[in-house]
Amino acid sequence: MGCSSSRTMTEGRKEKIRRPKTWKHPQPISRAELTQMGEEFWDTAPHYGGKKEIWDALRAAAEEDDLSLAQTVIESAGVVVQNADLTICFFF
Questions:
Q1: Where are the chain's structural domains?
Q2: In terms of Cα–Cα distance, which of 19, 21, 14 is closest to 74?
Q3: Which residues pair with 90 in a beta bridge?
Q4: Contacts of 25 by beta carbon, 8 Å cutoff, 6+ apart
Q5: In angstroms, rounded to a whole number, what is the distance separating the alpha carbons of residues 89 and 15?
Q6: CA 92, CA 69: separation in Å to the nearest integer?
Q7: Which of helix, strand or coil describes residue 74?
Q8: Residue in 17, 1, 7, 5 with CA at minimum distance from that of residue 79
Q9: How far out from the chain centre does Cα 80 lie?
Q10: Residue bearing the bigger pLDDT, 25 or 12
């Protein structure tokens, strides 16, 4: 038995990104607290693994209002999107 067809890991995986579902914190928080939580996440994320450049691209895409520009950022960085809302991504 052998491989009947093959393709690269990213071939055919050009998922269009979309905005994530609305998230609610279990406690009422201010805009400043939410901003601080976001900053803490992005500051510590590279320490859990992966290249800083990829984390920077993910942040730029996540914070971009224009989805087509966010899509370009993701594709330019070579990020493979598993979930269209960017909750699961890969880089090879």
A1: 31-91
A2: 14
A3: 80
A4: 34
A5: 11
A6: 22
A7: helix
A8: 17
A9: 9
A10: 25
Distance of alpha carbon 49 from alpha carbon 55, whole angstroms = 10
Q: Residue 40 belongs to what H/E stretch?
A: helix 31-44
Q: Do 54 and 61 touch, CB atoms closer than 8 A?
A: no
pLDDT in tens, 24-81: 889 999 999 999 999 999 999 888 888 889 899 999 999 999 999 999 999 999 988 8
Q: How far apart are CA 88 and CA 81, in angstroms?
A: 6
Residue 1 tokens, joined: 């038995």
**Tokens at 66, concatenated:** 């224009």
Query: What is residue 12's predicted lDDT score, i.e. its pLDDT?
Result: 46
| Token pair recorded at residue 54 | 């990829």
Distant-in-sequence, close-in-space partners of 55: CB < 8 Å, separation ≥ 6: 42, 45, 46
CA distance 9 to 90: 10
